[in-house]
Amino acid sequence: MLARYTAELILCENNNACGECPCCKNIENDAHPDVVFVKKACGGKYAAEPFREVLKSAVILPNNGKYKVYIFEDCDSMLPVHFNALLKLIEEPPAHLRFIFTCMNTALIPETILSRVTEYEVPDPTTEDCEQFLIDIGTERARAKELSEAFSGNFGECLDILNGGDAKIQAAVRKIAAAIAARDNFTALAELSARTERTEFYRIFDYLANVFRDAAAIKYGQTAENSDKESAEKIAQNFSEKEICDMSEAVFEILSDEVYNMNTALGASYFISGIV
Ligand SMILES: [Zn+2]
Hints:
The protein is mainly alpha-helical. The protein is 55% helix and 5% strand. The protein is built from 14 helices and 3 strands. Strands 1-2-3 form a 3-stranded parallel beta sheet, with helices on one face. The model has no long low-confidence stretch (mean pLDDT 84). Zinc ion (ZN) is lined by residues 8, 12-14, 17-18, 20-21, 23-24.
């Protein structure tokens, strides 16, 4: 939402992100030819291949205005290969390029990237803000309260659920994360092995990545923002920084799926054996 607004600030015909001009309207509808969203692919991961196509088109001048804006979402889930591919472009960007990166945790962004961007911290919405937002978009009061509390005011997670999202998957993630937190790898493996559908399997790891990211954040004295708080806190309590890092890496290894195009059962045991 904020990334779009920033793109409007850059491209708006009235120079104030008016939300009314054709430029702003197109950005809001994801239809502006000079605004490129670089998103994670299905399965919630960035493709292992660096953004070859994206970067190729970056040198082409904008269609409409002065600038071309690239928005990279959740860049804390990018792999080193992506950051490396971006580095050169960020170092000496052509005058017509603007980059917007969004992420939850800047601790996961390499210093080489961080030193070349301006960082803006977006304050966390409170659960009350979230509840009010959900009511404003037509959610029933009790449901809005329940959701905003369950997800500690995370708008995105609440919207996911309201949009038919994946409550079942999140329940599974909670179970798996709780088992991992209790060092009960047997239960974690059994839960993971029960997921034979690939999209579902990867979605779980996507959520687990958030849990470990939050656990790492808690270790660094920050707050959990993006996942089931309780599991993240337990993992932060029961594991060392190094162990949490290793677990994150094991998750990303599964998500990057580079080495093995393995079946889910094999993936599950590979992951569990990697975290003990
Ligand atoms: Zn405008």
